[in-house]
Amino acid sequence: MISDSFEYAKDGLTKNLKTWIMLIVLTLLPVIPFILLILLMLPSLMANTGADMPGSLIATLIIGFVIAFVIAIILGAFSMGYLLRILRGEVPLPEVTGFGRMFVDGIKLLVIEVIYLIPVLIILAVTAGAALLSALPILMSMPGEPDFEALMPSLMPILGGVIAGILIAVIVAIILWLLAVVGVVRFARTGKIGEAFNFSAILATIRKIGWGSYILALIIVVVIVAVVQVILSIIPYIGAIIQILISPFIMVFMHRYICILYDSSQDTPQPDSISQP
Fold this sequence. Notes:
Layout (H helix, E strand, L loop, with lengths): L1 H13 L2 H12 L3 H16 L7 H21 L1 H11 L11 H42 L7 H43 L8 H11 L1 H23 L4 H26 L14
Helix pairs in contact: 1-10, 2-10, 3-4, 5-6, 5-10, 6-7, 7-8, 8-9, 9-10
C-alpha cells in the first residue's frame, strides 16, 4: 500500500504540475482569513502597545478570530471535496476542476466530521461543567483571594475527574476515528451522508480487513506522516516552505493509502477504481 500510494502521488503531481500548484493554493486558502485579520487589527494592536488593552479591542479580536475560523473552515471545503475523489478510487490522480462540486462535497464531509465529533464534545463539556460546578463552592468559600496551595487537597478529586473525563474523550475520539475513516470512504463512494454512519456496514468492512491489520495500517501511515512533519518542523525557515510545497503530496498519499486499505476488504474491484478515460 505504501509503495502504491507513493507512486500514485508522485506520478499524479510530478507529471501534472498544474494540479500540484492548485492543491498548494487550496491548502493555503484557509490561512487567508487569519492573515487578513492580522492586517486589519495590526494598527490597533500597535497603537495599544505598552498599555492595558481596552476591553473593546479584546472583544473585537475574539469576534474577529471566530469569524476568521469559520471562514477558514468553509474555504477548507474545497480541498476536502477534492480529496474525496481520491477516496473514490479515481486513477490517475484527478485534475483540480469542478469547484462547485468540490465545495458541496467538502461541506457535506465537514458536516459528517462535526457529527462524529459531537460525542467527544459532549464528554468534554460535561467534564468541564461538572468540574466548574464542583470547584465554585470551594473557591467561593475562601475569604479574599483563593489560596490554591491550601485548596489543593480539596481540588485534587476534581482534577482527577477532569483527567478521567479527558481520557474518556480521547478513547471515544480514537474509536470514532477508526469508524469515521471507513465511513468517509463509504460517503465518497455513494455520495450519501447516511452511509458515513452505516455502522453495520462499516464494522463489516473493518472485520473483512481484520481489526489488527486495519489499526496497524492506520498507525503506520500516521507515523510516516508525523515523522516527515517533525523532521521538517525542526529545519529553520526552509522547513516551513518545504512543508507547504509537499503538503499536496502528503494529502494525496494518505488518501490513496486509505482508499487501497478500504478496497482490500472488497471481494471484487470497485467500479470507481477503474482508470479514468
